[in-house]
Amino acid sequence: MNGGLVVNEGFIYEEEKLLTVLKTSLFFANDGFTVYDCKGELVFRVESYGPDSRDQGEIALMDAHGRCLLTVRRKRPSLHQRWEGYSGEGTDGNKPIFSVRRSSIIGRCSVTVEVYGSPGAEYQIEGSFANRSCTIFNAAKESMAEIRRKVDASTNVVLGKDVFSLCLKPGFDGAFAMGLVLILDQITGDDAVPTTED
């Protein structure tokens, strides 16, 4: 087992696990996901309703039964884009269990994940989430999870960016990985929205 942050032990697998992630609405950016295993069983879901929900800055990851596993929230104000993850529902009065920081170095963007607790851990996310091609590495540079474009097995056609694969390495918590996907989606959505700030 590789260890790492455990949001929920029920989503740690002994063998490599391939999940299919589906963005559930095309009307607003960043507003919903459903995640299935290879048998078509629902594993996770994320729901938010309408364009105002992102103003609250909180997104909840739920299991198939609607139980909240993890809440992610944008930290404001923040020099770099910084997000925090909290166990369970809501962030009021809770301490974050991890943070995600995006930093841009001329021409290159990297995302660092810091896990709190004893022992703490650090992960790097490299690649392009916008193109659905990135990898989550641990401090030893071992791949823990990969996000890839989904290919239709029967036609060999690459599907659109609203459907992609999340491949979990043995021992890496799928709920934690999916929490990172939610944050990457928010960061990518922020990039797509023109801002007046520089």
Automatic annotation (TrEMBL):
InterPro entries: LOR, LOR_sf, Tubby-like_C
Domain of life per record: Eukaryota
Gene3D superfamilies linked: LURP1-related (2.40.160.200)
Residues in the signal sequence: none
SUPFAM superfamilies (UniProt xref): Tubby C-terminal domain-like
Family: Belongs to the LOR family.
Protein name (Swiss-Prot/TrEMBL): PROTEIN LURP-ONE-RELATED 5
